[in-house]
Amino acid sequence: MSYEKQPSDEARDALVRIAYGGMAAHTLGAAARMGIVDLIGDGERGADELAKECAAEPQAMGRLLRSLAGLGLLVERSPGTFATTPAGALLHSDHPESLRSFSRMFTDPTILRAWELLDDSVRTGRPSFDTAFGQDFFGYLAQQPQLSADFNAAMGQATRDTAALVPAAYDFGRFRTVADIGGGDGTLLAPILQAHPGLRGILFDSSEGLAQAGTRLADEGLDGRCSLVAGDFFATAPEGADLYLLKSVIHDWNDEQCTTILRHCRQAIPDDGRLLIIEPVLPPVVAPSASGVDPSEAGVLYLSDLNMLVNVEGRERTRDDFDQLCRAAGFALRTVIPLPEPNRFCLIEAEPV
What we know:
- The chain is 48% helix and 17% strand.
- It is an alpha/beta fold and 353 residues long.
- Strands 4, 5, 6, 7, 8, 9, 10 and 11 form an 8-stranded mixed beta sheet that branches. A 3-stranded antiparallel beta sheet has the order 1-3-2.
- Helix 16 links the parallel strand 8 (274-282) and strand 9 (317-318).
- Helix 7 packs across helix 12.
- The relative contact order is 0.08.
- Residues 115-332 form the O-methyltransferase C-terminal domain.
- Keywords: Methyltransferase, S-adenosyl-L-methionine, Transferase.
- InterPro entries: COMT-like, COMT_C, COMT_dimerisation, SAM-dependent_MTases_sf, WH-like_DNA-bd_sf, WH_DNA-bd_sf.
- Residues 18-93 form the O-methyltransferase dimerisation domain.
């Protein structure tokens, strides 16, 4: 293999940015944990003021703030005085589209520890989380109430943008009851019910997953139209619905586990019912154009795929992969509807056979 004697500046910069990516994530995590953006608010704050409120060393605080400015999350309006950018404002707890919990969770040492052992996961095909912590991710989460609450909040924040699009992207009005399997706090189910007043809901998850659901549904005025059912989707699925919905569930598990989950849905679903899986869909392994991976469109999806590998033994999947899972569980995949860009999720509809 031949190399250019002098790599381009663009090539060097691309590699250096990737190498520094972990440091950027830790910088983001520190800002989220310390509540920097909450303290700045809508105005401007000086580094010394913020250091005092955070019980931090002033010079170190200034260095953190300048690093956040370098990442595009803050802007230095005058020497030592900072304000938030639109991206940085998403770290504010009260922002309607806040990603603070999401940022805290995905920069938490619990998540990042497994990534340190990525090469082990690649060699074995098994989650390195189990090696690092001596048990699987969800078992560990169940024993950590605060981390579990952060995880639920992070998943809710990650779901919110998709939840805003789904009610208008699919014909929910033809159904009587929708069961959201693994639906957490109801972030997805609530807007569906609000958009379709004749629809009733069943929110099905573990007791930990449902911990914040009652409050959310009550706040949305939906507690009278939605039942909370605690259970294990590896053991059963609730009866009484004609639409079974799973968002960001299938990618958490291996093929055998996914087939078990979907078979329980098949046992509960009526013959005229439907299954709706909401997940990203990877491009075909061999694209018709034979152009391979497009990092501008799918880079984040492939990182998510590795995250599923190291933490939970799951994976992101292609349309063919979803088709095989559905057939193995007694469903026929009918349509795949991409949500409007830049959202990366698709509505994957299947019917019982």
